[in-house]
Design a protein that fits this description.
Elements lengths: L26 E6 L3 H5 L1 H12 L4 E6 L4 H6 L6 E7 L2 E7 L2 E6 L4 H9 L5 E4 L20 H8 L7 H15 L5 E4 L6 H16 L1 H10 L5 E4 L7 H11 L7 E3 L4 E5 L15 E3 L3 H24 L5 H5 L2 H16 L9 H13 L7 H5 L2 H19 L4 H14 L16 H8 L6 H9 L7 H4 L2 H17 L1 H9 L5
Parallel strand pairs: 1-2, 1-6, 2-5, 3-9, 6-7, 10-11
Antiparallel strand pairs: 3-4, 8-10
Bound molecules: D-mannonic acid.
The site of D-mannonic acid has 9 residues, from helix 10 and helix 14.
């Protein structure tokens, strides 16, 4: 068996290695949610920035719930392999920008210390949509969530993401630490503004002066992040070992494409992320909307229809003729709802997405993308659906995606296999759909009635409800495969 990855000097020449001295270099970033996506994206940009421009910008990773990543990365001195799978070619690179990983369950005080350290100038986040703790109906802090409620009662011993940020700000203020940038890297519209609102909501409740101090000293730029990164599998680890000759328990695999668009509004400097190709702009909103509605919207549609049709991976869905047509239609319809995006021709962007989804080297599971639908569909599908409804455009793509999601929510495949619905609102979904059997109208009504799921104007739009119901009835009666064929090629059936 190979030795563990702990250094990179003697790795094969073909492997790209950190181009900077790691020893003695300070950490300037604390990153919450140090999962595969962070390791394939922001940590790589930071590695490039350190190589080109240096600086004390190493990353301290934080896991909020589990110790797995700390256990994988710390024995490797924070080093790990990124496998880039572009078509036939796989290239491997060892990334050195992560200094270490702290896990909240094991060392909560060390996490707060790192967040509050004056040397920490950026706290970045990839904590998934549900990690923010906002009430979908109002966009404000959801005080009814157990972790948020517990943190409001005991703000010095946080568990939630926002609780950690506010506790860190309180310590920073007490210590006279400089301003801080909170950098959200999750797929949510206006992610910077959102986290700012939640932090201030929370802080106001514990200490009004603290809230004012945060508003004055901290920055919350929005970002758009993009790199398709499937969950690490045993195959990823085996491939990394083949490439490097070392056991690497923290390897990730990803595609060649990568994009990061960031609002250039930082409280106390930032790494030279341009070195990795990041684009700094005054407003991220147009890029973010494009990515959420085109890439992520189509992804969710692919995930639900594909999973139900028995396709394990996104690439398998793309090999299916009718599904390809539906993905193309979805991208076209979503593009129509967008304002022009500087430097990007939307038809080219769509063509590129078709290629990326079809990448035969990336095994991205439909089941992975299908989780947390209630947290994803509002910005991916319902918002563009509302825009299309108000403009009088076709609602078919959005209705199809929504109907497939409702079918998915029922928690059983067509051959009767039950699966667990991973969604923070799983209990509400089960309560809403329970007892309606295969009655498409009743199911659609129940789901449309869920609080805060859809914009009210969309939930009340008869045309949308009917379009969803018709499709759901077809799926339940004729089956998923027939419904897909009918949707893609209505004249042939
Ligand atoms: C995916 C995203 O799992 C999902 O919901 O749609 O993680 C997607 O792969 C990334 O946003 C790509 O940048």
């Amino acid at each position: 068996m190979s030795a563990r990855l702990t250094a990179f000097d003697d790795l094969p020449d073909a492997i790209r290695k950190p181009g900077f001295e790691r020893r003695g270099r300070g950490a300037g970033i604390v990153h919450l949610g140090v999962g595969a996506f962070h390791r394939a994206h922001q940590a790589v940009y930071t590695d490039d920035a350190l190589a080109r421009s240096g600086g004390d910008w190493m990353i301290i990773g934080v896991s909020l719930r589990s110790c797995d990543v700390a256990e994988a990365l710390n024995p490797q001195a924070g080093l790990y392999t990124v496998l880039v799978r572009g078509g036939e070619k796989i290239s491997a690179r060892v990334v050195g920008s992560i200094a270490k990983v702290l896990a909240v369950p094991r060392e909560p005080a060390a996490v707060l210390d790192a967040l509050a350290a004056p040397s920490t100038r950026i706290v970045s986040l990839t904590v998934t949509e549900k990690g923010y703790g906002f009430d979908p109906a109002t966009g404000a802090l959801d005080r009814s969530r157990p972790d948020i409620a517990a943190d409001l009662a005991e703000p010095d011993r946080p568990r939630s993401v926002v609780g950690h940020l506010v506790a860190a700000f309180a310590q920073r203020r007490a210590r006279g630490a400089p301003g801080l940038t909170v950098l959200s890297c999750d797929n949510l519209p206006g992610n910077g503004e959102l986290v700012r609102r939640l932090v201030l909501d929370f802080a106001r409740e514990v200490d009004r002066d603290l809230a004012c101090w945060i508003a004055e000293t901290a920055r919350f730029p929005s970002t758009m992040v993009d790199r398709i990164t499937p969950a690490t599998s045993d195959e990823t680890l085996a491939e990394a070992e083949r490439a490097t000759g070392r056991v690497d328990m923290a390897a990730v695999e990803t595609e060649a494409f990568s994009q990061w668009v960031i609002e250039d509004d930082f409280a106390a400097g930032r790494p030279d992320w341009e070195a990795g190709g990041a684009l700094f702009v005054a407003s991220v909103a147009p890029y973010e909307k494009m990515k959420l509605r085109m890439l992520n919207g189509a992804h969710s549609m692919i995930a639900y229809a594909g999973f139900l049709a028995g396709h394990e991976h996104v690439r398998d869905v793309m090999a299916h003729e009718a599904m390809r047509l539906l993905v193309e239609r979805h991208l076209r319809d979503a593009a129509r709802t967008l304002d022009p995006v500087k430097g990007i021709a939307l038809p080219d962007y769509a063509a590129r997405l078709m290629e990326r989804f079809a990448n035969p080297a990336i095994a991205h599971r439909t089941e992975q993308i299908a989780i947390d639908g209630t947290q994803k569909l509002p910005q991916r599908v319902f918002e563009p659906a509302l825009a299309a409804f108000e403009a009088g455009w076709s609602l078919d793509s959005y209705a199809f995606a929504t109907a497939m999601w409702i079918r998915f929510v029922l928690g059983r495949t067509e051959d009767g296999r039950a699966y667990t619905l991973h969604d923070p609102r799983a209990a509400a979904l089960a309560a809403a759909t329970d007892g309606h059997g295969d009655d498409a109208g009743a199911l659609a009504n129940a789901v449309f009635g869920l609080d805060g799921l859809m914009p009210a104007r969309l939930a009340q739009a008869r045309a949308f409800r009917d379009a969803v119901e018709t499709r759901l009835a077809r799926i339940l009666k004729d089956g998923v495969a027939a419904a897909i064929t009918r949707e893609a090629m209505p004249c042939r059936v």
